[in-house]
Structures are given as C-alpha cells and as structure tokens.
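Forum > Structural Biology > Help requests

Title: Can anyone predict the 3D structure of STAS domain-containing protein?

Hi all, first post here. I have the sequence for STAS domain-containing protein but no way to get a structure on my laptop. I'd be grateful if someone could post the structure tokens.
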Amino acid sequence: MEQHVNLSEVRPPPTPYRLERPVYDEAYLHSQLLHPKDRTSRSVTISLSSCSSERAKAIALSFLPILTWLPSYPVKEYLFGDLVSGLSTGVMQLPQGLAYAMLAAVPPVYGLYSSFYPVLLYTFFGTSRHISIGTFAVISLMIGGVAVREAPDSRFTIQAPNATNGTYGDFIDTEARDARRVEIAVVLTTMVGLIQLVLGLLRFGFVAIYLTEPLVRGFTTAAAIHVFISQFKYLLGIKTDRFSGPLSVLYSLAAVLTNIATTNLTTMFLGVVCVVFLYGVKYLNERFKKKLPVPVPGEIIVVIVCTGISHGLSLSDNYQVDVVGTIPTGLLPPSLPDFSLVPNLVADSVAIAIVGFSMGISLAKIFALKHGYSVDGNQELIAMGLCNFVSSFFQTFAITCSMSRSLVQESTGGRTQIAGLLASFVVLVVVVAIGFVFQPLPQTVLAAIIMVNLLGMFKQFRDIPGLWRTSRIELTIWVVAFVASVLLGLDLGLLVALGFAILTVAVECKGIKIFHSNSSIYFANSDLYVNALKEKTGVDPLHLQAVQKARKRKLKESAGKERRNQKSSEKMSAIVKLVNDSQNHMDVQQNGLVAEARPESDSEEAQFLEPLGPVHTLILDWTPVNFIDTVGAKAIKLMIKEYAAVDVCTFIAGCSRTLLDELRTLQFFTGVVTPEMIFPTVHDAVLHCQRRPVLPTNSAIQ
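Reply #1:
Sure, ran it for you. Structure tokens for STAS domain-containing protein below:
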C-alpha cells in the first residue's frame, strides 16, 4: 500500500550561514582584490562645469526632496489614495490638536496652529512619505512641564471680589498666565527648531543611534503614565494645581485623590461615556480594518456630538462643566519670540529636540522599510528643524510625528506627502472659518481622546517578557528608562536613561583606544583633530617622551653603578690573589659581589622594558571622513611618527575608496605610514591589534 506524504510538512533543515574571512588590510585589498596586475587602468575625464552643475542640482534635490518626486507624481495612481488619506488624517488632526494643546499648557487654538504650519512645511522638506507631522502627546507634555515651571499659577494669583457675595478672595489671572505660557512655548519651539536645524546641517543625524529602541519605548511608556495621570482632573472635573519636576506624577495623583470628593458628576459621566465609545471604535477599526475602506473617525464624532450637546444644554452654565472657551477665527500675524527667556530653556530645548527627532526618524524608517524607499536622517533633522523654527514665528509649539495619525495616513491609502498637505488644509479651513463652533466643547472630551490614544503606548509593557527571554541588558535599559522618567520627570529621566544605556555598551579593549570624529581633516581643523585625539584618548606623546627620558636616565645611572661595582669586585679579586687566599674563597667573594649588584640592575631593566603607558594602540575611525588635504595628511603623518617614537602604534580604519585615492595622491603611504596600517573596518583593526605582540620599539632601548 502506498503511503502519501504531505510535501508541505517535509521541510529541509535550515541552511547554515557562516561568515569567516581573514583580517584585511589596505595593502592586501589594493594589490589582490581591487587592482590585480592584469587589470588595465582607465581614465575618466569630467568637465568642471558639468561637475559643478550636477553638484548644485544634487544639493537642491537633497534640501528640497519634493523636487525629486513631484514632477513624476502619478496622478491617476496616487491622487485618490492621497485625497482619502489626507481627509482622514486631517479629521483626526483636529481633535488631537485641541487636546494636546492642553498638555502643552496653552489655549486649544494653538494646537490647531501647530497642526497646520509644520505639516505644510514638512511636505516640501521631509523625506518620509507616510508619517503624520503635528502635535504629539509626549512632546506636548514636555513643553507643558516647562511652561508650568516657568509660569506657575502662584505667580498670577490676584485678589478680586467674588461676584456672588462681594467678598475678596484669591483668583488666578488665567489670561495673563496663558499669554506667558504661550510665550514660553513659542521660544522653546524656536530653540528646538534651531538646534535640530543646526544638527542637520552639521550632518548629526547619527545621534538617533544613541536612543536605542528599548530606551525610547521605556521612555515613551513613562511619558504615557505622566500624560494619563495628568488627564484625570479634566476627566473628573477636579480643580488641582499642575506639577512638574521630580515626583510630579506622584504629586498629581495625590492631588486628584485628595480632591476626589469635588468631582463634577456631569463631567465625569460625559468623559467616561466618551472613553467607552472611543475604545469601542478603536476596537472595531482594528478588528475590521481589512473590510473598512477608511477607519471610523471616532474622535471627530465625539467632538461634534459633545459640542452640540454642550451648546444645547448649556453645560458650562448649568452644570459647571469646563469647556474649551474662546477660539479666535483666523491666523495670527508673525511675531518675534521673547528671546530673553532663552537662558532658562537651553537644557529643555536640547532634550525636546532629540526626543522629537528620534521618534520621527524611528517611525519614518519603519514605513520606509515596509514600502521600499529610504529616508535621510540628516534631511529629516533639517525638515523638523525648519518646521519648528519657522512655525514658531506664527505662535506654534514643538511638533514631531504621531504614531496613531501616521498609521491612519498609511492604512487609508496615503502614498506621498500630498496626504499631509491635504490634512493641513483641513485644519486651515477650521481655523479660518469654523473654529468658533468648537468653543462649547467640554474639556473632558479632549481628556478622553488623549487617554484612549495612549492605549498603544501602554501595550509596550508587553516588551518586558520578550526582552527577558532575549536580552537582559536591553530589558534593564527599558526598566531604567521607565522608572527614571516616571520618578524624575521626562527631562532628567531621559538624561539618566541615556547615561545608563551608554554605560552598558562601553566595553573597552585593553590597551586599545578607538577615536571617532565626525568631520573631515583639512587645514582649518587638522590641529583641532590632533589635539582632540590626545585629549580624548589621554595619550600625549610629549608626556610619554618625558617618561621615556626619565627611564633612560635612570638606566644610565644604574649602568654606571653596576660598572663601579664591577671595578670594586676586580680590585677585591686582586687583593685576594695577593694574599694567596683560596680560589674557592675568591669565587665566593666575586660571586657574592656581583650577586649584590645584579638584582637591582635586572629589576631596572625590566622596569624600563615595561610599556610607557596603559595604551599601546590607537585606531582612527575614518568612516565619516570624506576629505583630507595636504595639511591634514602631513599633520596625521607627523602625529603617527610622534606616537611611534613612544611605542604607541596607530592604525586607520573605515576609509572610503575615494579617500584612499586622495591619500595615495598626497603620497601619504611613505615613511612611517604603510598600507598595512589601513583596515577596511574597525573590527579588522581591533582583531589585528589583539593578535599583534606588544613589544617596545628600537627607539625605546637605544
């Protein structure tokens, strides 16, 4: 009887993948791989004019990425998807802009401004086709913490008569307070944009690598805790102070629990109903996302319905429900920020700039990988910097991309930044024409929108079991980032998490220093490069030469002392011979005298042969070096010669082929520098150094 075998269940064993190769240096790569003897040389002549025009065109395209795709935009294929995506994202942008303005401690209309200008600018300067730029909970909360710290309620407390009984009491001048907080948020945004712009122009897009995924996810989960607790008072209608700084989350929770008896039942009921409804809509959108042409816009539905209910029942007057309040119609004219506030905001602006960029670039890379295109980290820094810097003159607060809106923009058919452009137009229509309609909107509805949108961040707690199984170090980074950010606040927590993450990877090869500088080497900075190398590595040739000279002097003194001892021994031998002492006695005396001198000499020679310092090898990581001129090449050769004189070997790793051609043209590989000192990667150089015996050079013992 034949047996039938299901071929789908019979799987071959997985193919092993192993990589093993010898340690390469430049001499081998150049002679054996790149330029074998039978290869004919080729010369290419490029005119200077064409090179210059192509360079200018490349610069323009890199600075304005829209020029690379808009001329060839396939209208029939992409426009409908971008239109649907833009409208869906814009409808979602409206309530989130209003809600996140509360987190930033500014009036809601400024959230609408921040949902228009930056989105419009990113269309021209951004490289990601799918992320939705605008307000975001974490960044808004960080801005709000700074605004509350610099303009607390206590500074705007005034005494005024009570309209009910005529007695005087303490009241907060909310108009003056909000105006001051807007000034603080605007200046902070200007500085954030300037920092991002400068970092982008200096090609510092690599800074995002220091914010590892576990760190970012632990930090954003902690930020979700801060945001969630901060919204309880709006959800319940409780009047409490807003806290910032270390332990602020505990103070906020304690204040809510202390005043829980003052809960406004109407506010709480409306907020809870909105939470349940929004959660149900999110569940249905996720459950039936393949069947729904577009997600159900639950947020705009609750905003419209609750605004109508609030207006019809006069919830503000009859039930003391806090509402959004005045929303001015139209856009504000541009104005200069109050730069007198800058000294107090430097550290906060750096933290917000880095966090905002890291979130944006990480999400942009996810979508780029999914859809098969690339994003430029440096251009993303420039784009976000321009979005924040330019928009701040129109009274906006700092922005980044939103995960929830980006997922909607991508899932509803968005193909390019045209979707974001259309979303900004939706916000513009509301600001210019119908913004006043949302004035009766209860604040508890905005709190419900914020709290439900945090559910995705709370799901990041699921990282813990996975990291426990795969990487305990990354789990520790996640936990430290979370705990530090919850207890110390987002700014100090981020600093602690960064420091801890760097410590976990700071493994140093004994005796080897790797020096990385993100710049080319030319006449203007060659001395700075060499000085920075000496400072950062702690290896100074002048100091080592002084140690070497001191050892030589001590060795000469010990050698002279040994010669004197030998002469004394010879005299004693002659005396012994004259008195006809026994030969054995003479040998004992001679051997005894010599033995007294030898131990000291041997120990001093051994001490002299010891390394001059703990570092015996320097590896220069030239991965980011794009150019070197004659002055730079001479400075590096002189530095290598100085280090060689004190028994410190220098190797270079990560050179591009273009840079190697420049080095050969400059006759860099002569004298003390040879191609055997150049390695394709830092790892090759480290392996070579670890296997190389460390011996003193001839210069050390001459």
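The longest strand covers residues 157-161. The two ends are 89 Å apart (CA to CA).
Shout if anything looks off.
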